[in-house]
Amino acid sequence: MKAPDFDYLRPETLAEAMDMLSRHGEDGAIIAGGQSLLPLLNFRLAGPERLIDIGRLAALKQIVDGDGFVEIGALVRHCDLASSEAVARAFPLLRQAVGHIAHPAVRHRGTIGGSLAMADPAAELGACCLALEAEMSLQSVRGQRWVRAVDFFAGIYETALAPDEILTAVRLPRRGPDSVQIFSEVARRRGDFAIAGLALVADNHMANPRLALLGVADRPILAEKTMALLANNMAAADQAIELIGNEIDPAEDPAYPPAYRRQLVRTLLRRTLMELLP
Amino acid sequence: MSIGAEVPRDRAKRLLLGRGRYVDDISLPRMLHLAFVRSPYAHARIEAVDCTDARALDGVVAVLTAAEIADAVASWRAEHKLFPAMAAPEQFALARDIVRWQGEAVAVVVADSRAVAEDGAELVAVTWHELVAVTDAKKALEREAPVLHDDMDSNLAFTTEVASGNTKAAFEKADHVVEEHFRFHRHSGVSLEPRGIIAEFEPSENRLTVHQSHQTPHQQQDLYARLLSLPEHKVRVICPDVGGAFGLKHHLMADELVACVAAKLLARPVKFIADRLESFLADIHCRDHEVTARMAFSPSGEILAVEVDDLFNAGAYGQYPRTSIAEGNQITRLTGAPYRHEHYTANLRMAFLNKSILGHIRSVGHPIACAVAERLVDMGAAKLGLDPIEVRRANYLHGDDFPRTSVGGVEFEYLSLRGCLDKALTMIDVPGFREEQANLRAKGIYRGLGVGTFVELTAIGPEYYGQGGQHISAQETCLLRLEASGDVRCYTGATDQGQGIDTGIQQVVSDTLGVPLAAIEVISGDSALCPVGGGSWGSRGAALAGEAALRAANTLRRNILSIAAGLLQKDVAALNIEDGTVVEAGISHMTVAEVARIGHFQPYAIPDGIPADLTVVERYATKDRLFLAGNGVQIATVEVDVDTGIVTPLRHLVVHDCGRILNPLLVREQVRGGVVQGIGSALYEELRYDDDGHLLTGSFADYLVPMAGEMPDIEVAHLENPTATSELGAKGAGEAGTAGAVSAILNAVNDAIAPLEATIAEVPVTPPRLLKALGQI
Ligand SMILES: Cc1cc2nc3c(=O)[nH]c(=O)nc-3n(C[C@H](O)[C@H](O)[C@H](O)COP(=O)(O)OP(=O)(O)OC[C@H]3O[C@@H](n4cnc5c(N)ncnc54)[C@H](O)[C@@H]3O)c2cc1C
């Protein structure tokens, strides 16, 4: 379990990084916190010729408490997210979710950009971005483009990122003062990747609900039928709990059969809705 | 008194400070590194191995296959003469012609670094012809199943029956019978430090020096000498700090033998450290039994008969040199052993299949024997409407029952089961728990309480392996050396992988000799320096090496006192050693240091004809005493989330009797660690394979070990009934926690879900299995 040989590049600026990627994007890989990439290298599941370490790009480490939005730089670590007051005020969902990511050692290195770019279907932050209607900023020498979370995740470990693009930031629109945000998941042990998880974001009285699920498909998904059923209609809770289990189609997994994941998602939704009962 | 004191171990401090020195911390000049080419198939013919590209790679020094090492190393067969009918197919250090489990090594790349060796391993091109894999004992024993080994006509490695009384008649007559089909899945010992070795060969002296993460240096010395045709005194095996072993490091592992061969052929030091993936693939595994068992009861709850059928999913070969039989053997001999009953039959069928070798991991077979019986007792009590705790108490062997040879053929000098149960019941308020349990059930919260009774066979005597024909020492020898300063060096055959046995032995020597703890250093884990001994496994250190140390300390004490008596012109019987000083009725005469100085430098002052050796050796070996049985009771409480299937352990308590306790702190640590491992196998740990024999759990993301966050506080108490078979009176303690934990957890889970009319008898109890049992999915 030793990584194959690679060259190591460390750009000092975003421009330099983009330039390197424009030349080496195909056979190179960005390294941020390394918490997902290093295991892949050591298992020899990835073998890039070059690692481009973006750790020095200070511009990507900011959390901007903007007007109508919060923008989180790609290099913001899980622990930074957990301790940010701006994030806690606007998006309690994120603070709840980050508590479920791994252990302190991993949270002190892993970054939001790395997590999203990795696109592990069981990652907490992907589902949160989906629930919170995030937009991702993708930059390359060709320019910058904004991609909505629903369009960003393309499949298991696949995203809209082109080989020469860097994910630089995630922008989250602020929600109204009555915004309800609840995150929950089931993992075998504290800090494990979730078997399944659910992020609920809604306005008062279940207006405009967004239910994002993790761990149940090849990417984080929205339970759209259940969202439609529940919208402004808490009375449909029981039906929604039934529906959400049928709405998903988890893959065969020798450890956790699809029926088990369906059961978990129902349980998570039931427990989430119970929290909202007066 | 030092025996019985809570002395923390020095080694722990060093290890916690990160100052341990494990095999991988050692680096020798000109050292090379190994990476193995392992079979991706569970069963395949090796048609060709092309090493051309690998050999051409910069930094690769050699690539070896079975053909290249054939002349340098012998093959072996895991035979046991007490079980002459057991199949013992020939095994080679690197697979020849056929691979029989995924992960079996077919070639090894020797290179300047491990990374380059791995690059080289990727370049070795093997042409495989995949064969049908046999991955489950039931199928392996079917007539049409492909047979793994050419010299066998089926995959049945061994079969036996243990019988006593008239079981059939007892079941026919019995008023109440309960029966269950159990599945105990495969797991392993999972030491944090993986297997590792540095082998170094000096051709001009024909000398092999090995640093290995291992439990039994003398056994390895013997094996390496014989398999590599070296004179035994030219082989030295040193075990530095060992980061956990749990039984997976007391065998011959083919990988490590290959490292020795490579060192010999290349005349350069060679290092091999197993990475986690190859640990899961090629370590010794354990358990993997399918057990069907019945228990017959009288209307009043008396246990009348027990019947056990064990289908044992062994590995591709027998484990060498001990063989794989012990796990099946323990299950067939121990199930129901704590209980008084006359009729007992146990059948064993052990099948070879295409998985890694199955061997002895902490508490070999015990957790299964114990879980099966304890579950049946609970089922019987439920059927009869009796309190399971009272059914246990009434049926436990006790008082006049001892000494006794159990229906399974195990000798019990004494068991303190009722005492342990009574003590446990003072630690937990069972009626209070039952009341709370009922209240919580009304709120949809399901809690359960489970009892597990265990006996633990420790400190095996020399007959088992002696008559089996293995070169495995069950005799322990201790060498004590009084230094000129009066300090003492103690050389033991026991080894320390974190248990703290060094400290226990230090305490025995300190007490017996009458010198302070700080004046004693225990030296272990070196086959050249230490007296030949068995190392550490099977809960034997305190009982055997402890007794040998006591004997050696008695002899050294006698010699010190006789020298002092001669010098002081006193009657030796009037003298004693206290706190490093020779005293007579409380008055000090001279220090041990003075005796040592004179003994070493002015020996002419010592009168002739008295015992004056300052280096002494004593041995301890038992005769016709196969095991020392420890015993205990564990009680677990758990909460079951019936919607997610997640089980949360709440409390876990253990009352244990291992005879005389050298150091309660260390014994508690052993019990706690053992319980955690037992909870691991009850709830988390499982080596899962697909039907083709491909391992699905090759990393810690898929193979779940118990973590501190999920573990309950483990409360431990002791009764102390010393064995009369030794002066020290200690029995083994290292496996007690593991032996009983599965049964307590399994019973607690079943108690929790009993109101839902569900039961489960498959471990680990994973969430999907539990929800299936509950009919939720
Ligand atoms: C023991 C352990 C447990 C874990 N448990 C969890 C868990 O429960 N939940 C969870 O969500 N995660 C978990 N993780 C993963 C962790 O959150 C990682 O930190 C995260 O997935 C990747 O972030 P990183 O900064 O470490 O990225 P890296 O490992 O450096 O990179 C990951 C991938 O993203 C790419 N990449 C990184 N940054 C960018 C960027 N800015 N633009 C474009 N591409 C980029 C890399 O090229 C690489 O392909 C766990 C990890 C470990 C080791």
List the helices and strands and how they pair.
The complex is a heterodimer of chains A (278) and B (777).
Chain A: E1 7-9, H1 14-24, E2 28-31, H2 37-42, E3 50-53, E4 63-65, E5 69-73, H3 78-83, H4 85-90, H5 92-98, H6 104-107, H7 112-118, H8 124-131, E6 135-140, E7 143-148, H9 149-152, E8 153-155, E9 158-159, E10 166-173, E11 180-186, E12 196-203, E13 207-214, E14 221-222, H10 224-230, H11 237-247, H12 258-276
Parallel strand pairs in A: 1-3, 2-3
Antiparallel strand pairs in A: 4-5, 5-10, 6-7, 6-10, 8-9, 11-12, 12-13, 13-14
Helix pairs in contact in A: 10-11, 11-12
Chain B: H1 10-16, E1 32-38, E2 44-50, H2 52-56, E3 60-65, H3 66-69, E4 76-77, E5 90-91, E6 98-99, E7 105-111, H4 114-123, E8 125-130, H5 137-140, E9 156-164, H6 167-173, E10 176-188, E11 196-202, E12 207-212, H7 217-227, E13 235-238, H8 254-266, E14 270-273, H9 276-282, E15 285-297, E16 303-313, H10 325-334, E17 343-351, H11 366-384, H12 388-395, E18 404-405, E19 411-412, H13 417-427, H14 430-442, E20 446-458, H15 463-468, E21 476-482, E22 488-492, H16 501-513, E23 520-523, H17 541-568, E24 575-578, E25 581-584, E26 587-591, H18 592-601, E27 615-620, E28 628-640, E29 647-657, H19 664-684, E30 713-719, H20 736-753, E31 762-763, H21 767-773
Parallel strand pairs in B: 1-14, 10-31, 12-13, 16-17, 22-23, 29-30
Antiparallel strand pairs in B: 1-7, 2-6, 2-8, 3-7, 4-5, 9-17, 10-15, 11-12, 11-14, 15-16, 18-19, 20-28, 21-22, 21-27, 24-25, 25-26, 28-29
Helix pairs in contact in B: 10-11, 11-20, 16-17, 19-20
Bound molecules: flavin-adenine dinucleotide.
Residues 29-37, 54, 74, 101-102, 106, 109-111, 113-115, 117-118, 120, 123-125, 161, 166-167, 193 of chain A line the site of flavin-adenine dinucleotide.
